[in-house]
Amino acid sequence: MPEPFATWFPNVANYWSTFLESLAATFQMFFIAGILVILIGGAFGVILTITKPEGITPSKPVHMIFEIITNVFRSIPFIILLIFLIPLTRLIVGTSIGVKGAIVPLVFGAVPFFTRQTESALADVDPGKIEAARSMGSSPVGIVFRVYLHEACPDLIRAITITAISMIGLTTSAGAVGAGGVGSFAINYGQNMHYQDVVNLCVIVLLIIVSLIQLIGNTLSRATVNKELFHL
Amino acid sequence: MKAKKLIALACLLALTISLLAGCSSSSSSSKTTDESGSTSASTTVTTSKDPVKIGIPADATNQARGLLLLESAGLIEVDDAAGYTPELKDVTKYLYNIEIVPTQANTLVATLDDFGASCINGTYALTSGLNPQKDGLFTEVQEKGSDNPFINVIVARTADKDNPDYQTIVKAYQSQIVAEYTLTKYQGASIPQFDYDPNFTVSDDFVDQIEGYTSSKEGKKVIKVGVCGTGDVWKAVQKQLDDTNSGLYVDVVIFDAYNLPNEALNAGEIDLNAFQHKTYLQSEIDSQGYDITAIGDTASAPLTLYSKKVSSVDELKELAGKKDN
Fold it and tell me: Residue A180's closest CA among B160, B15, B202, B226?
């Protein structure tokens, strides 16, 4: 460890290995839950978009069910959700504590948010293009992949960026179920021990992560405007 | 190009704000301690009519302790029928003109300037530089071996309470090295509740040595222990376990909140937990139906009444003034 680091952050230096473990826990939760959220939330968003009355395959009951699921889970505060989902978490991954136990509530917490983001991104797709694809005989699946997801690509990347950053926020609560992470480290070793340097470093690290995600998101979203980056 | 510059600017701005916030909070707290001496004279005059605010922890069991502490300090009277767990509604009489304000336990130190006095848990007080022996007005009395229900315990599932490995861990906790670590690190804010030799000397870097102690789980039986807070004391326990060749490895699982370690223990996701006193354990067993039981005493963290406005309980009473009921 470089010398100035130990003078600036003396308490972090003492707990260096604990800090690294907490960083690892945050990244594990973020990536595993994040991928699931993009897949499940994306699917939910597409289903909500195509089943609404003016969508390409209108279906009132399906639309209602997904609408209700999304609203219910959006209204539960995350820290309550963590505890509320314990029985289900145990059923799915076998334990309700640690990184594994935090991933299920993280997915449940972030999927509804990403669903709404996806829905709003897809709503901006020009209806004329959908109509054109349909008149040329495209199937609903074709329209979803070749029109909706293709046209909305920059917006979807922006939505993923926003969701990813809000998920970093959610992972900081996961310490409640013993999952560790940067947030838990900041609370237990920083705030409660009154080691201000620990809190400061955690804030800086989170800031760097958030800035990086935003930078990557902005770059990708600009690169995909009207370009065939992803051939779907 | 423009966007890149903006992002860099935003990063820089956020960085300076976070750093400033960090620095200012520490400097402001030290400033207020200097000033409190000069402002206390004026507050004595002006607040004679408003009730003096007393902060107590907001969570149920610590709140009960806070009320009992205020009762033994002679500020209030509490209904005896409530036993060890009175609530705010069980306060039968305010002897002095005070208002009791429940506040999140870990923020009581930061808000001490805003209260006439506050009941603060030893663990939170000491880490912020408040020493119960030097700065406290009045401290909870906790005698070893008494029926004091606020002694912290190691808890196991009732079915496993005689498990020899768990007994080994209790024995390792109740060892001289753990007592020395607890007393040196917490200086009276946490007191071991088992037999130890109080006449000991440790080297200056003893605490750092313990906290830097690492052990490998290879070839050892792993015992998962749920704790709240840092769990550093378990490094001393691990050292004792290794020194006695017990073949056990303590895997510490840190929980941020009190509501889960018992749930996780009851469900068999951890083997032991150590974060609560007997009263909290009993209330959890009663309300949640957990089949868990205490298998050993660890330490107690007395609650102390602190103030930045007055320096004794008598001065606090004078500041508040008698209340006519």
Answer: B226
Question: Could you give the CA distance from residue B288 to residue B282 in angstroms, rounded to a whole number?
Answer: 10
Mean pLDDT of B311-316: 91
For chain A, list the domains and their CATH numbers. Answer: 3-223 (1.10.3720.10)
Interface probe, candidates A14, A104, A192, A221, chain B, greatest B C-beta count within 10 A: A192
Measured between beta carbons, the chain A residues lying within 8 angstroms of B11 are 207, 211
**CB within 8 Å of chain A, chain B residues 185-244:** 208, 211-212, 214, 226, 228-230
How far is Cα B256 from Cα B275, in angstroms, rounded to an integer?
Answer: 11
Which residues in chain A have their CB less than 8 angstroms from residue B270's CB?
A: 97
How many helices and strands in chain A, by DSSP H and E? Answer: 13, 0
- The residue with tokens 């970093």 is A168
Instruction: State the smallest CA–CA distance between residue A116 and chain B in angstroms.
Output: 26
Structurally, at CATH architecture level, domain B34-141+304-320 sits in: 3-Layer(aba) Sandwich (3.40)
Q: What is the pLDDT of residues B11-23, one digit of tens each?
A: 555 555 554 444 4
Dihedral angle computed from the Cα positions of residues A175, A181, A187 and A188, in that order, rounded to the nearest 10 degrees: 80
Q: C-alpha angle with apex A117: A112 to A118, nearest 5 degrees?
A: 95
All structural domains of chain B with their residue ranges? 34-141+304-320, 152-301
Q: How far apart, in Å, do the first and last CA atoms of chain B sit? A: 72
- Closest-CA residue in chain A for B265? A97
ipTM value > 0.95: no
Q: Give the contacts of B201 (CB within 8 A, at least 6 positions apart).
A: none
Measured between beta carbons, which residues in chain B are less than 8 angstroms from residue A86? Answer: 263
Mutate to test the interface with B, among A78, A99, A194, A207 (most CBs of B within 10 A): A194
Judging contacts by C-beta atoms under 8 Å, the chain B residues touching residue A186 are none
Residues B85, B208: Cα–Cα separation, whole Å:
38
Q: Which residue has the tokens 């990536």?
A: A31
Helix or strand holding residue B109 (H, E): none
What is the CATH number assigned to the segment(s) B152-301? 3.40.190.10
Cβ contacts of B155 within 8 Å, gap of 6 or more: B262, B265, B272, B273, B274, B276, B281, B292, B293, B294, B295
Place A11 in a pLDDT band, splitting at 50, 70 and 90: confident
φ, ψ (nearest 5 deg) of residue A100: -55, -45
Nearest to A200 among B22, B259, B260 (CB): B22
| Three-state DSSP class for residue B257 | coil
Give the tens place of pLDDT for each residue, B277-293.
888 899 899 989 999 99
d(CA B235, CA B212) in angstroms, rounded, equals 8
Strand stretches in chain B, DSSP E: 52-57, 76-78, 91-94, 98-103, 117-121, 138-139, 152-157, 191-192, 221-228, 248-255, 272-277, 292-297, 299-300, 303-306
Give the start-end residues of each E strand in B122-220: 138-139, 152-157, 191-192
pLDDT at B99 over 60: yes
